[in-house]
Amino acid sequence: MAGYDDRDGFIWMDGKLVDWRSANVHILTHALHYASSVFEGERCYNGKIFKSTEHSERLRMSGELLDMPLPYSVAEINAAKEAVLKANNLTDAYVRAIAWRGAGEDMGVASKKNPIRMAVACWSWGNYYGDAKMKGAKLDIAKWKRPSPETIPFAAKAAGLYMICTMSKHAAEAKGCSDAMMFDYRGYVAEATGANIFFVKDGEVHTPKPDCILNGITRQTVIGMLKDMQIKVHERHIMPEELESFEQCWLTGTAAEVTPVGQIGDYNFVVGDLTKRVSETYEKLVRA
To answer: What does DSSP say about strands 93-101 and 48-49: parallel, antiparallel, or unpaired?
Structure first.
């Protein structure tokens, strides 16, 4: 597979479709130096982006949280995503919408004079965790912790918030793991590097309270599914020592979808019936 900078196709950029290889930014783009960037990851199934409007709404909200109001409405963002899928002749794809402060008159921390730009790309992307989607992912435990909400706009899907996630995932992969689970600044179980996490005990589901982590759209979808199944869901703070008592575990995210977890550090989990049921129900829902 060619690198992401060297492919055939089109990317929507600042209101128009451009050749894939021409979708470039200047080296003094503010986002490259100061992380003034927000993004969304979405999946298109059978020609329909799952919860496209919710993603577009969150993109705009993320921009507002970073003091970076996007110059496009939700309807315009939705239309851009549809245009780029059509231009690339894709009906099953991953869609990446991104907005950032570009190059302009400012090149310090402040950047009010710089334009806010936006792009949308899409490509074919299989299982985020490869064969772990079937047999269960193996997770390391990250040394980095999700920070306090007093230090970051945690409800924003902002590029800068993923730096410690990249570092944690690299460390995990070096150990032969698919990903890493992170604790939060208080020591509670938080999430994986790019996905929310769920546990099962005695037929009930437990998931971290999203009070310092992103409340994922897939997370919210799965919680709704579980409630429809009459499965009790506990959104709460989870202590590290509780990991030993949980029987099943899975991750949720647009890229991850619903991925079973077989191991976190020294703790093992079965890919049980409820995990399989949730995964199968989610697959049916997104393709409905």
So the answer is: unpaired
